[in-house]
Design a protein that fits this description.
7 helices, about 30% helix
């Protein structure tokens, strides 16, 4: 089943920083240098993840390793299966994946783990993992837009019909926030309902300038991929095992510590997202 993304209805919009970095343990007998790592984004067309993958390449190149980016063009678990199988056939040292379904990709990932491949999840979690970020928010209901503009717009309409006195909407996807902003900008809810979440400056700047959105945020996608690259390398090199309390160096980003998340499983936090508003949004083009 395709993992659904959502627009989240919140009482007060709050954006909490983080990044998912997950790992699976398995011993590897492959060489300690010049390893190959597969980055499997949700799809190959998502501009956010294209930048994240670039960050991973920067990290792995610095470590003397090779990155292969592979995925489908749709946000489905089925579209990611060929890339996982390719990583297995290549005996990749590690897989970095933004899962389209938390469980459906796990049988193949576990097959990779069985042969010694380390698995790190970023952006979207998978169940067969060790590290993850947790995002805490108070909400009244979750609506799903499935990363589809039309469905995300309809989700916005539905939530406003169900909650006519709604104070705020927070979207965890760039598609969700831009679709919600498009609807709000021409509705009676403009400047009455607070909209925030994760967005791309190229899509959101017009809504900032017309007053629909005051501010939105985005983790630096290049840093996201960069951290994931160092994390999967540290696992493959045996520098960490994924246990709470362990630390590893992530190049220019410094040293990171594995912590115990609210779900009682280990996680690594990238740091706070960058906030865009009317003062700075025109400086960015991605």
């Amino acid at each position: 089943m395709q993992k659904r993304r959502w627009a989240v209805v919140v009482v007060a919009a709050v954006l909490v920083a983080g990044v998912a970095v997950t790992a699976a343990l398995a011993a590897s007998s492959r060489p300690t240098t010049g390893k190959t790592y597969y980055f499997i984004p949700k799809d190959t067309l998502n501009p956010y993840e294209v930048i994240a993958d670039r960050g991973g390449k920067i990290a792995l190149t610095a470590l003397g390793d090779k990155q292969v980016v592979s995925s489908g063009t749709e946000d489905t678990a089925a579209a990611q299966q060929p890339a996982i199988q390719a990583a297995i056939q290549a005996h990749a040292a590690g897989i970095v994946i933004a899962g389209n379904d938390p469980q459906a990709v796990c049988p193949a990932l576990q097959q990779a783990q069985a042969q010694g491949t380390k698995v790190v999840a970023f952006d979207s979690d998978v169940n067969c993992r060790q590290l993850f970020i947790y995002k805490n928010m108070k909400l009244v209901k979750i609506y799903y837009g499935n990363d589809n503009p039309a469905q995300s717009r309809q989700a916005t309409v539905s939530m406003l019909q169900a909650y006519p006195h709604l104070k705020g909407i927070e979207s965890s996807t760039t598609v969700g926030i831009s679709s919600a902003a498009q609807y709000l900008s021409t509705s009676k809810y403009k400047k009455k309902v607070v909209l925030t979440g994760l967005g791309l400056p190229s899509q959101m700047k017009k809504y900032v300038h017309n007053g629909t959105v005051t501010a939105f945020a985005l983790w630096n996608p290049e840093d996201l991929g960069y951290l994931a690259g160092y994390a999967v390398s540290a696992l493959a090199e045996g520098k960490i095992t994924g246990k709470v309390g362990e630390t590893f160096k992530a190049g220019k980003l410094g040293t990171y510590k594995i912590i115990n998340g609210p779900d009682k499983r280990p996680q690594v936090i990238l740091g706070p997202p960058f906030v865009f508003d009317i003062k700075n949004v025109d400086k960015f083009n991605f």
